[in-house]
């Protein structure tokens, strides 16, 4: 299912919410009616939580079906909650807290910012149980903000080059394409949430943008 709705009061839904094929982790203060939209669209269980005591869950964490990598300032109660979901929980060394902005991952692979150390990349690989490759995209290092990837496809910033698109295809093992949401926003990772079942994008997204999202994320053969 593909929807364009206002979930958090601004286009940056991916900054606040983290979704896998099994669960959507949402802020404690998210209205139940909004949580229900996410549950229905992505066909997942809803878990209300925080990361490092913050509601910026999508910025401070990245996850796939195997694990979750979180800010080094994560709280013990948050770690237990994520472990109770059956996820490997890991933090990366250094001062980088917004790990969701610098890592994009599905169940096949992860692309991370090139400034992450080899130690950090190995921790990510172990926690998510995927191969990890470091590379900038569209001239920047905010990989997670520029890519929305699932186990069915990926949407990448309109500024990505053909070689970067091909690289993403190789790492993630799925087809994808460039695109925007919210009337031209290229930070598609920050302004959407998605999994193999559906996606929610910024409310102002246009018809052509929605069509591109549908194709890039592999939903064309689905019955919406």
Label this structure with key terms.
15 strands; 9 helices; L-arginine/glycine Amidinotransferase, Chain A; alpha/beta; 224 residues
> Strand count, sense and closure of the main sheet?
3 strands, mixed
Strand content: 15-25%
Total count of helical runs of at least 4 residues: 9
Q: Taking all residues together, what is the mean pLDDT?
A: 96
CATH class: Alpha Beta
| Largest sheet: spatial strand order | 1-15-14
- Strand element count: 15
User: Which runs of at least 5 residues are low in confidence (pLDDT < 50)?
Assistant: none
User: Would you tell me which CATH topology applies?
Assistant: L-arginine/glycine Amidinotransferase, Chain A
Radius of gyration: 16 Å
Query: Which H/E pattern describes the elements?
Result: EHEEHEHEEHEHEEHEHEEHEEEH
- Number of separate structural domains: 1
Look at the structure and name the CATH superfamily: L-arginine/glycine Amidinotransferase, Chain A
Q: What is the global morphology?
A: globular
Structural class: alpha/beta
List the helices and strands and how they pair.
Layout: E1 2-4, H1 13-16, E2 18-19, E3 23-27, H2 32-42, E4 45-49, H3 57-60, E5 61-63, E6 67-70, H4 76-84, E7 88-91, H5 99-102, E8 103-105, E9 109-112, H6 118-128, E10 131-134, H7 143-146, E11 147-149, E12 154-157, H8 162-172, E13 176-179, E14 192-194, E15 199-201, H9 207-216
Parallel strand pairs: 1-15, 3-4, 6-7, 9-10, 12-13
Antiparallel strand pairs: 2-3, 5-6, 8-9, 11-12, 14-15
């Amino acid at each position: 299912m593909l929807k364009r709705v206002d979930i958090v009061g601004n286009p940056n839904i991916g900054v606040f919410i983290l979704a896998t094929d099994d669960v959507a982790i949402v802020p404690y203060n998210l209205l139940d009616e909004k949580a229900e939209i996410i549950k229905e669209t992505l066909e997942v269980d809803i878990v209300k939580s925080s990361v490092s005591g913050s509601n910026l869950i999508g910025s401070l964490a990245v996850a796939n079906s195997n694990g979750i990598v979180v800010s080094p300032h994560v709280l013990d109660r948050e770690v237990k909650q994520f472990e109770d979901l059956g996820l490997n929980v890991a933090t990366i060394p250094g001062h980088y807290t917004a790990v969701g902005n610098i890592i994009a991952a599905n169940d096949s692979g992860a692309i991370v910012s090139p400034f992450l150390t080899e130690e950090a990349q190995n921790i990510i690989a172990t926690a998510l149980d995927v191969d990890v490759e470091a590379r900038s995209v569209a001239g920047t290092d905010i990989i997670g903000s520029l890519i929305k990837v699932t186990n069915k496809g990926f949407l990448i910033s309109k500024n990505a080059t053909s070689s970067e698109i091909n690289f993403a295809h190789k790492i993630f093992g799925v087809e994808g394409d460039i695109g925007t949401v919210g009337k031209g926003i290229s930070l598609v990772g920050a302004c959407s949430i998605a999994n193999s079942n559906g996606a929610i994008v910024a409310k102002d997204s246009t018809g052509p943008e929605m069509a591109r999202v549908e194709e890039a994320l592999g939903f064309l053969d689905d019955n919406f």
